[in-house]
Amino acid sequence: MYLKGTVKKDRKTKNLVDRLENGDIALISHKDLDEVAALSLVEKKVKCVINVCETISGRYPNQGPSVLLEANIPIYECKDNLFDKIDEGEIVEIAENAIILRGEKIAECQLLDKNRIEELLDIGYANIEKELEDFIENTLEYAKKEKGLVTGKIKVPKTKTRIEGKHVLVVVRGRDYKMDLEAIRSYIDEVKPILIGVDGGGDALLDFGYTPHILVGDMDSVSDKCLKLADEIIVHAYPDGKAPGLKRVENLGIEAKIFPAPGTSEDIALLLAYTNRADLIVAVGTHSNMIDFLEKGRKGMSSTFLVRLKVGSILVDAKGVNKLYHSTFKLKYVIGITIAALIPILVVTFMHPIMRELLILLKIRIRMMLGL
């Protein structure tokens, strides 16, 4: 296989995606490439991906490589530190197992084909039982430390946006978030819920033509545009009050509140809506299973477990709703609607005096023709 293209590089895939263009070669350092990151690379239509880390370590069956494989995007692994050898914007060639820059071979690489990916995934599935055991132990251990999330010991900010008695839509840029947002678009347009974007979830709302009322998160994966458009910003801080993301917001001249709390930003977004007396919370793209959390680099889901225990009575998770019902155009529905619309028209028409006289004359004419 021979490939040639412009290299864009970043050790954080989520930061790289914003700079990628159609046909670029993505140089990443992403161990156990997750599904969401892979989908973002597919959306950018990259020519190929070069990873300087193990794309599948075998610790668990991460789904990112399968996503790229299905999209016919080749994945190469390179053990050399290419980040020091290639500048962003340079054009490289990949011929067989060689990476060539300015006519010279600078590194060896290995193509992860279908057979190799399946082999590594099998190792991951074989290890899943041990990972599950460790995951459960970590979840229970940290649940004891983070119980303040749901026992009232953590102060939840009062939002400037009025939430009480309203529906709230919390959007996280997780698996299938685009399809799920598309599936509930009519709900958003009709009910007009309060829109909370969690980091990149704010940009997801913008992509669908909606402006988030509230933006929650550590602000490391949301655009400046979204930060400027959101009505209210709440920065997720560490329990000790340190909030690295606050500086970025302040540098844009934007005011923000901080929410010191353990757990994930999506957890505190749900808690924020609940504590501010939302009538119903609809969640899109949130992480809810072990694979989701392992792909986020978390070894447990204690905060999610605790928060969902608290807000579960008013929480509706829209994950996978796009697969629940697929609307299709059916001719019989159109015919039925047309007939239903014609019935009152015909009734009114036949009740008109002139029409009734014409019908009587027509009846007489027919009887004369038939000799009756």
UniProtKB/TrEMBL annotation:
Domain SteA-like C-terminal: from-to ranges: 319-369
Gene Ontology MF terms: ATP binding; kinase activity; thiamine diphosphokinase activity
Example GO BP: thiamine diphosphate biosynthetic process
Keywords associated with the record: ATP-binding, Kinase, Membrane, Nucleotide-binding, Transferase, Transmembrane, Transmembrane helix
InterPro entries in the cross-refs: Put_SteA-like (IPR047795), SteA-like_C (IPR022215), TPK_catalytic_sf (IPR036759)
TM spans (from-to): 333-355
UniProt cross-references to SUPFAM superfamilies, sorted A to Z: Thiamin pyrophosphokinase, catalytic domain (SSF63999)
Residue ranges the record marks as coiled coil: none
Xref: Pfam families: SteA-like_C
Protein name per its UniProtKB record: Uncharacterized membrane-anchored protein
